[in-house]
Amino acid sequence: MKIYTKTGDDGNTGVQGNLRISKSHPRIIAYGTIDEANAALGIVLTNSLDRDIIDLLTKIQNELFLVGADLSNPNLNDMKNRVSLDMIQNLESLIDKFESELSPLTNFILPGGDIAAAQLHYVRTIVRRAETHVVQLSEKDEINSNCMIYLNRLSDLFFVVGRLINKRKGKDDILWKI
User: Fold this and answer.
1) Where does this protein have coiled-coil stretches (predicted)?
2) What is the H or E stretch that residue 150 is in?
């Protein structure tokens, strides 16, 4: 099987249900940004990280595929939605768990410190942009609303894990100063 199909040469692409839509459609922009976040997360995983962080980020990569699959589904009635409230609650539990290892924030912080933490902060901004695109899509088409909530929690988790990586590697948070 060849990687190129030539079916998208006219500016359209396929989504679930054998439908074809423009590559500039908000649905494609939304799950394309999810794909970008997943690729950037792969870069973070090339760093030397603790096993629990590697396992977590790898799990999230797989979950991002589920988010993309849900977003590529224009027919919510076919029961193929995968992003669940359990996934969201798991992110919340992880945020609480990791925050317990950190000192409370008293200032805004800047992305930076260890390279992996800085890269994870970058992924966080991609996830925020993806969330914005998903909101835009939801204003045009019906979607699995759990996708928006999941992305919102995921960006929070990446913020916390970025701080955690810095702490575990002996790096201080970089405080915002004016």
Assistant:
1) none
2) helix 146-168
Asked whether the whole model's pTM tops 0.85, one would answer yes
Bridge partners of 22, per DSSP, are 12
pLDDT digit string (tens) for 100-140?
999 999 999 999 999 999 999 999 999 999 999 999 999 99
What is d(CA 48, CA 50) in angstroms, rounded to the nearest whole number? Answer: 7
- The DSSP H or E segment spanning 61 is helix 51-71
CA distance 35 to 17: 20
| Residue 149: φ, ψ to 5° | -65, -45
Neighbours of 59 (CB within 10 A): 13
Residues 155, 173: Cα–Cα separation, whole Å: 17
Instruction: Choose which CATH entry (3.40.1110.10, 3.40.120.10, 1.20.1200.10, 3.40.640.10) describes domain 24-175.
Output: 1.20.1200.10
